[in-house]
């Protein structure tokens, strides 16, 4: 169990810690929904390019189907104490149309290049509109660190 005595971080420290995690973390939980089939949640590998989260999934996956129908998504880094939640709209790129720098960065990070695989893959880019970050109850107030795509001070 985590120690509940957490020192409240200032906004700039929360932003720095969040950006550090976006660069170093491997997995993100992706929540999507389909108008007819409801919610779906799955972990995916991701790469952060300094502005957006890039993920890749089979072009026939439920996630791919959902983001094509309903691009609003929520993302969560996998830690229930050091919480980072992102919200935005997904843009989809078939593996043959993905920007080279994004696909190369993804391949470099994971040592796996979906563009070389059999079967189609879909790259999904999410530019966050809202980011929430907190560690424990002490940081619940003021947990929004990005609003309308702008980092708060």
TrEMBL record:
GO cellular component: cytosol
Signal peptide: none
The entry's keywords: Oxidoreductase
Taxonomic lineage: Bacteria, Bacillati, Actinomycetota, Actinomycetes, Kitasatosporales
Record domain Pyridoxamine 5'-phosphate oxidase N-terminal: where: 28-134
Keyword Oxidoreductase set for record: yes
SUPFAM superfamilies from the UniProt entry: FMN-binding split barrel
Any matching Pfam family: PNPOx_N
Name of this chain's protein: Pyridoxamine 5'-phosphate oxidase N-terminal domain-containing protein
Keyword Oxidoreductase attached: yes
Organism: Streptomyces albiflavescens
UniProt xrefs under InterPro entries: F420H2_bilvrd_red/Heme_oxyg, Pyridox_Oxase_N, Split_barrel_FMN-bd
Single Gene Ontology MF annotation: oxidoreductase activity, acting on the CH-CH group of donors
């Amino acid at each position: 169990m985590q120690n509940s005595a957490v020192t409240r971080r200032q906004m700039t420290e929360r932003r720095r810690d969040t950006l550090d995690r976006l660069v170093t973390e491997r997995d993100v939980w992706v929540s999507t929904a389909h108008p007819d089939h409801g919610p779906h949640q799955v972990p995916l590998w991701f790469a952060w390019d300094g502005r957006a989260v890039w993920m890749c999934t089979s072009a026939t996956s439920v996630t791919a189907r959902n983001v094509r129908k309903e691009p609003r998504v929520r993302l969560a880094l996998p830690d229930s104490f050091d919480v980072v939640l992102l919200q935005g709209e997904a843009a989809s790129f078939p593996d043959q149309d993905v920007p080279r720098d994004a696909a190369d960065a993804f391949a470099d990070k994971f040592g796996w290049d979906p563009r070389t695989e059999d079967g189609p893959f879909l790259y999904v880019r999410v530019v966050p509109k809202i980011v929430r970050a907190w560690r424990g109850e002490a940081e619940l107030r003021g947990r929004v660190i990005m609003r309308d795509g702008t980092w708060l001070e």
